[in-house]
Amino acid sequence: MLGLTVEWRIRRHMRITPIKTLAIFYLHLLACICPNVFKRFIYNRLLGHSIHKTARIGFSFVHAGKIKMEASARIGNFNIIRNLELLAMGEHSLIEKYNRASGLPLSNTMHFWDEADRLPALIIGKHTAITGKHVFDCNNTISIGDYTTIAGQNSLFYTHGINLERNRQESEKLSIGNYCMIATRCVVVKGAKLPDCSVLAANSTLHKAWEQTHTLYSGVPAQPAKQFNETCKYFHRDSGYTH
């Protein structure tokens, strides 16, 4: 990951001509409507991405500096993913329908220009599922661990906000652990962390980095509300799918 970070630091200072930028945009747009065999040719051969031969992308607009999809990763229909430096999906991971993910690229210095470690990215672990109608503000990195479910609909994930004292936009990473579940209509803000084997209850707001695993976090702002038994089968799955 360190080598990739250095690569993106270099990208921040690269000058890309408007013609090349437009060409790249239209190639991503063309891939949106092509069958998967042609999508992979465009993404892998023409744009330099890494889409496994068993990965699938539906009728969705997916535009990032680097796209990495491992075996059997899937993106469903009607998703819009744009202006990321990195989209990485582990094997058997899933983004279903009507999700949106976007960020301000490193080449744009209107905001966050003094944040040397900022990386607009969405990183999804293996056997992890994102259901539908969720919004991911990826002005900084959103990382979601293995065997985790972003369930229900209409949850919001924000990596940036306004610092009132400085009157400046600021960004910070947020992370969701392994074997977690986020229920419907939740809000997760910059700097927040949901620990491994934990659940964020419906309509809750996660506002800080927690460390206590096997815990239900609930409320606005979310607080530890219940301790789970570590033997719960959800925390020991070898497949992301839940019957």
Helix content: 10-25%
Total beta-strand segments: 23
Unreliable stretches: 5-10
The portion of residues forming beta strands comes to 25-35%
Number of helices: 3
Number of domains: 1
CATH topology: UDP N-Acetylglucosamine Acyltransferase, domain 1
The outline comes out as globular
Give the SSE string: HHHEEEEEEEEEEEEEEEEEEEEEEE
What's the rounded overall pLDDT mean? 92
Instruction: Output the structural class.
Output: alpha/beta
The CATH homologous superfamily corresponds to Hexapeptide repeat proteins
Q: End-to-end span in angstroms?
A: 35 Å
The CATH architecture category equals 3 Solenoid
Please state the CA-atom Rg, rounded to the nearest Å.
Answer: 18 Å
Please give the largest β-sheet.
Answer: 12 strands, parallel
CATH class: Mainly Beta
Explained architecture:
The chain has helices at residues 2-12, 18-33, 36-46; strands spanning 50-51, 56-57, 61-69, 74-75, 80-89, 94-95, 100-102, 121-124, 129-132, 135-137, 142-144, 149-153, 156-158, 160-163, 168-171, 174-176, 181-182, 187-188, 193-194, 199-200, 205-206, 215-218, 223-227. By secondary structure, the protein is α/β, with parallel strands linked by helices. A hairpin with a 4-residue loop joins strand 22 (215-218) and strand 23 (223-227).
